[in-house]
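DATA CLASS: polypeptide
GOAL: derive C-alpha cells

***
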Amino acid sequence: MFIIGNFIIAVAWLAGQVLGIYMWIIIIAALLSWVNPDPYNPIVRFLYAVTEPVLRPIRRLIGHSLGPVDISPLIVILGIIFIRQFLIVTLMEIGYKLKGGVL
C-alpha cells in the first residue's frame, strides 16, 4: 500500500504546484489588464489564452454587478486557495495514511 500512498502524495504535490503556478498566471494577467498591453505580444496572448477559458464563465455568471470592476480573477484565486487547502491537503493525508506513516 505504500506505493499507492507515495503515488497519491506525488499527485497531490504536483497538483498543488500546478495550481500555485496557475494562480500566479491569473494574478499577472489581472495586473496586465490594468495597463492595456499590446494584444499582439506573445506573452500577453499566452496569458489570455490560458486564463480566459476559466474567467469567461465566471464573468458570465456574475455579470457586471460591480460596474467596470472585474472580480472574476479574485473568485478564481479564492477557488484555487480553497482547492489547495482542502482537496490537496486531504489527498496528502490519505496518501500518508495509506503509506502507514503518521502525519
Summary: The chain has one domain: 2-99. The chain is about 80% helix and 0% strand. Helices lie at 2-33, 42-62, 72-99.
